[in-house]
Write a structure and sequence with these properties.
five-stranded parallel sheet; alpha+beta; six-stranded antiparallel sheet; 446 residues; 24% helix
Length: 446
């Protein structure tokens, strides 16, 4: 609203406009053409404004008014002189990070801003592990995304691709590939465009074949899915099919999708291992613990097919649940094991979680588009004490993952979780046999 109160600046559907305050705008009314708009920026003046805003955001929005014991005016006086030595927007982010570090508080993030784009051409990836074998590179494993996950593009697993583990990549776009060079060097600038690879099942060009492949920018999704599926199969094998495995990557959309997808697909299992290691947080995952805490109340008989009765509730896993957590799980990844323990769903295996449970929301953006988060809501337990923040959630069964064990392919935390769940399996199947039919009609006199 203008100072006079007579006009309103609005934005709708990406369009800016100015209309009289008394006139409710429709998209397009008073539209402004900003295509030729230019603005002269004085970086030092803008950096001072950003510093002032960041300091004020904490002054006005922090979840407690004692700043965790810090003198917030003194903190400003300590760090403001550093602005004279800032020569790049990244320098300013560094100063802001130091300033909010005085709070000794999680969820204090700073980043972005008007920083020049330094993106390079990108390096194309094949979704595969390459190992040196003599003077050639051999494909040791191809990540296929299980070939049923939407959104995962496995370059070497598209239909008709004649390549497999054990094959050698001899050339990329006609450029010979040998072990005296970085195997990714010829893939620079190939993201998203078709290229040719010379492939053979022997480290020689004789009898080699040429394939066309489109490299991707990231293998993170493919490798994560492979890790999850390897774990799921391992749990199934080690428990002889008695246990299921669910990975919860965060407590936002991806976490809820993964939980629903894997938990209910394995509800025929007698128990479940819930893996929330590296959980990136999001929202409060009360839905997940509510589902895991479901109790079996009874059955409806099923006279059709194999006569297995229907359970009430209709969906659930009624046996033991064990959760795995580690020091890289935080925020919603702290609250999930906290609730899991408080509801007495099962034991927690692993390491103490990160310890960041003061929520962030609604911090205004900085003037140049950078971000600066202010923790807005701390967590209290039912005794009225601040909880979890800077503490984390300790496991019931501590298990350390050493680098040697992991490099050698081991996962002691997963092994211990399987062992604990197996010990807790009930001796009897909760699905009971149907009793004899009831007799309620009066007997005939004949």
């Amino acid at each position: 609203v203008s100072h006079s109160g007579e006009q309103v600046l609005y934005q709708a559907m990406g369009q800016w406009g100015i209309v009289p305050a008394a006139q409710p705008p429709s998209p397009g009314d008073g539209a402004l053409d900003l295509s030729g708009l230019q603005m002269q920026v004085n970086p030092r003046a803008e950096w001072q404004q950003i510093f002032d805003d960041a300091w004020r955001f904490n002054r006005d929005y922090l979840y407690v008014d004692n700043y965790h014991g810090a003198d917030w005016d003194e903190v400003r006086a300590l760090y403001e002189p550093w602005l004279d030595h800032v020569h790049h927007r990244a320098d300013l982010n560094y100063v802001l990070a130091l300033m909010i570090g005085e709070l000794s508080l999680g969820h204090t993030y700073v980043g972005g801003g008007d920083i020049p784009d330094g993106d390079g051409p990108g390096t194309g990836l094949l979704g595969a592990d390459l190992v040196a074998d003599g003077d050639r590179y051999r494909i040791e494993r191809i990540y296929d995304g299980e070939q049923w996950n939407p959104g995962l593009n496995a370059p070497l697993r598209t239909p008709g691709m004649d390549v497999g583990a054990g094959d050698y990549i001899l050339a990329v776009e006609g450029r010979e590939l040998t072990t005296d060079m970085n195997p990714y060097a010829p893939f620079e600038g190939t993201v998203g465009r078709p290229i040719t690879l010379l492939i053979n099942d022997e480290p020689t060009t004789e009898g080699a074949r040429e394939i066309t492949v489109e490299p991707v920018a990231s293998e993170a999704g493919l490798r994560t899915r492979a890790w999850v599926e390897d774990n799921r199969r391992y749990v199934e094998e080690q428990s002889d099919g008695a246990l299921g495995y669910v990975y919860v990557p965060n407590t936002a959309q991806a976490g809820y999708e993964s939980f629903n997808r894997y938990y209910f697909a394995q509800q025929d299992r007698s128990g479940m291992v819930i893996d929330e290691r590296f959980n990136g947080g999001g929202s409060a995952a009360d839905y997940m613990v509510d589902i895991m805490a479901r109790e079996l109340h009874g059955f409806f008989n099923n006279p059709i097919g194999d006569r297995t009765p229907f359970t009430t509730p209709g969906a659930g896993v009624w046996g033991p649940k064990v959760m795995i957590a580690n020091e890289a799980a935080g925020s919603g990844g702290d609250l999930l094991p906290y609730m899991f323990r408080r509801m007495e769903i099962g034991p927690i295996v692993g390491r103490r979680t990160w310890g960041g449970l003061v929520g962030i929301w609604d911090t205004p953006p900085l003037i140049d588009g950078g971000f600066f988060t202010v923790p807005r809501g701390g967590f209290l337990d039912l005794d009225g004490n601040w909880a979890v923040e800077n503490e984390g959630v300790a496991p019931d069964i501590p298990v350390v993952q050493t680098p040697r064990e992991v490099i050698e392919g081991g996962d002691p935390q997963l092994d211990r979780a399987i062992e604990e769940a197996m010990m807790r399996l009930p001796e009897d199947d909760p699905i009971i046999e149907e009793p004899a039919p009831p007799v309620r009609a009066p007997r005939s006199n004949q």
